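S2.1 Query sequence (Tetratricopeptide repeat-containing protein)
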Amino acid sequence: MEFPAEVRRGFRGGALRACWLVALCSANLCESLCAPLREPATKLTTAQTRAYAEVLNMRPAAARALLGSGTDAGTLLVQDCLSITELLVSQDAARFGSTVASQDTRLEQLEQQTGPLAEYAAAEIRLHQAAAQVVFNQEVRGAWSLRRSYQAMQRVTERYPNYLPARKTLGMLQFFIGSLPEGYRWFLRLLGLPGSVDTGLANLRRAATQPNDFQLEARLVLALLEETYYKKPAAALALVENLHREQPENQLVTFLLVSQLKKQHRTDEALAAYRARPSGPAYLPLPYLHHLAADLLLYQGQYPASRRENELFLRQYRGRHYLKDAYFKLYLACWLGGDAPAAARYRARIGSEGRTVLEEDTYAQRFFDDPQPLDAILTRARLQIDGGYYRPALATLATFRPTAATPLRDQLEHLYRRARALHLLGQPDSARVLYAQTIARAGLVPYYYAPQSALQLGYLYQLAGQKSTAKAYFQKALSYPKHEYKNSTDTKAKLALAELK
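Output structure tokens follow.
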């Protein structure tokens, strides 16, 4: 059994993956020893708060020094959060067996403890275990661990209805499961888990708006979900920018800032944040940051620098995801930079390295399998648009001269890129015309330009208050049977339709 891509992206992808890693609770050894004489712990101690902060800073040695070796619920959970962070950030398969074995030991120790913190810790550790198992290809075990975590977190909220950290995690799970595309209903039936976008958001908002030890985490998760699926980028970026001003030494916050600026096409600012990132031997290496930087430099046309960053990513990274994407970006840097022999070498690696679970890797593999070569003008324009350089992109696109012999894929891309540039420049009327032309010309060819055009038209008409037209375009986006970004496109269209009800 293989996890749906949207669930796997929840464990692996970009800024949301970081949020999976920061669910922490606490109590120290002294409290553990005195537990029979006291009420079960529910809040973080000072020491645990500081250890939590160091895990977020991605400074493992500092976190361990503060944490100690207690066996109370909070200590066990912080230990587990630290170990799962190290595993998922490094993607080092050599760590997997010992990480899962330690999780099993912690879960056994928690069976002897009671109270909201202990029960929450057990459910959270089980979720970490599900993440590890999915990432390292133990799909069936991961599904079972996810199911047990979900059900345990439900019991925590039923037994302790005002314990907000559990509502944060349960809400996140409810949202992800409820937002799965219709094609994955078999997965929900198999797990027996009730997903609900509305219930999940309600639980997340409750944890995000009321004081609790993990309120900041809930705020981050909620903001990132709304940015990704509900077109609310300003709030997410403002939150991350404020956090970065308060905690410039925090590597996780820096990662989130670079990621958010990149998603919002603010390349210059993203690169500035990347170059000012905290570094040194105290920090856990974060190879994916180099992959992000390589994209940003590619957008600017700094091809040798982009190549160096992706080569550094490949030297440090131990996982199997993002490899095809990295070799594809290396191909682009060499091809557009005029180094044809190196471009050919990197292109060959796309077919032999990595996996096609994430959409980025699937797109790279599809490029490798397609005998039709990329068009240099359209490729440069795409990179300029991704980087936020919309007027230069329109100037680049103006040099493209389609003829009757131009492949349909390139004709569609030309229309779609012009639409995106105009849309992002704040010219919706012109963009709507070009999006509609893209849809009309595409038919059902398996490229993402038409479904993405339908999705963007849905957003534009939704913003204009034309709900029936918006609904028709979101349904149109869902109707395309196969394309590179079907999972994410379908999820966004489904959630947009739910908003219109």
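Residues 139-159 form the longest helix (21 residues). Residues 9-38 have pLDDT under 50 and may be disordered.
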